[in-house]
Amino acid sequence: MTSLHDLRRVKSIDALRSETATSSTGFRRVLGVWQLTSIGLGGLIGVGIFVLTGVVAATQAGPAVALSFLIAGVASGAAALSYAEFAGLIPVAGSAYTYSYAVLGELVAWIIGWDLLLEYALVVAVVSIGWSGYFQAMLSQLGLPLPDWAAGAPGTGPGHVVDLMAALGALGVAGLLTLRIEWGARFNTAMVLLKIAAVIFVIVVGLPYVRVENWRPFMPFGFSGVAEGAAVVFFAVFGYDTLTTAAEEARNPQRDLPRAVLLSLVVALTLYVVMALVLTGIAPYPTLDNPAPVVTAFAALGLPWVAFIVSVAAVAGITSVMLAFLLGCARIWFAMSRDGLLPEWFSVLHPRFRTPHRPTLIAGALTAVVAALYPIREVAELVNIGTLSAFVVICVAVMVLRRTQPDAPRSFRTPFVPLTPIVGVGFSLWLLSRLPAIAWERFLIWLLIGLAVYFLYGRHHSKLARMTD
Predict the structure, then answer these.
(1) Is the domain covering 4-468 a CATH 1.20.1740.10 domain?
(2) Global pTM?
(3) Which of 24, 61, 206, 325 is paired with 279 by a 20 to 30 Å CA distance?
């Protein structure tokens, strides 16, 4: 019989640290602060800046999409400060799942971990579809369009049967992530530098073409539209948490993880706001509702060469988003398996490359199928719920841990506690309330499946349970 105490059992911070320090099958600690920051930027800058900026401007916020990013950034920033404290305190793979396990107990940790498995996998699928759109645009500009049957999921266009490039993109990234982590990190860093250069290029080239009249009216859908837009673009400002899943591969995690979390969010948010203002300044916002709005905007200005450069950079940049979130998904899966909540078969590292190759390849294959066969809107509906829920939990956990373990060694302390975490909780709950009912229904179905898995398997095989029996 499961008692309430069993469900609330926690894994001590000292146990978490010693577990990774003494493990004979540990990861290779090779990542520095800039590589970690690049993983965070890899998750942050991609579909949001190249696709969502235009779509949300056209359908929900108008030129005030820049305000939508700022609102989403406040919620994300408060949570980022909380993540930074935990990243320095508990430098262990698993991110929000592991932090919850240390503070709020096994059941809450399971729920968060299970949710994030879905969220991260769906992000990879959504981003793969966006990546495919820009890749196909680049091929078309080169006179090499794909046949209709391979150009998109069923129902997305005439003759569409499968989004072939989306599937191949997900599988390719999964293959790369099974190799040495530093190889993937170097590739990711190169892609991140390329896409940041492309965003700056777009801003500099676009500035002379900005017309102030395109910003009028600035808020055509009212503030409610800006708020709804913030709930959507939040998809674009939570990728920094992916870098905390690589904690056991960082050379100096207590120092570098907090720095990387905050640095990646600040850089990304600044670029998002400026990019949003430039894009809505060079093109009337109603014209931006398409899969490649940046390309479309510059093509309309008679600058096809800029459009081609943007397509190439978007393909490269969005690849790094796929890499960051698939890396996060596999490592959360690994951490849950190592704790016994999922079969231990998943936590066996590759004997040569020291990567969690089994969950990486399985997650890559599943996301490839979803990306190939489902439209982007259907896949994207579920993405934000799990992440916002994780943010609520992390912000609450910071407040709890400050009371229960005030003297625990922290390399970074969230400022203005409890105010900062309360702001994070409040904004996250508000953004959750703006999401559609169908997303909640599907989320609850996934949650019920997860609870069934936990009570039928996880609670019986939990290593912590066996230690305390």
Answers:
(1) yes
(2) 0.80
(3) 325
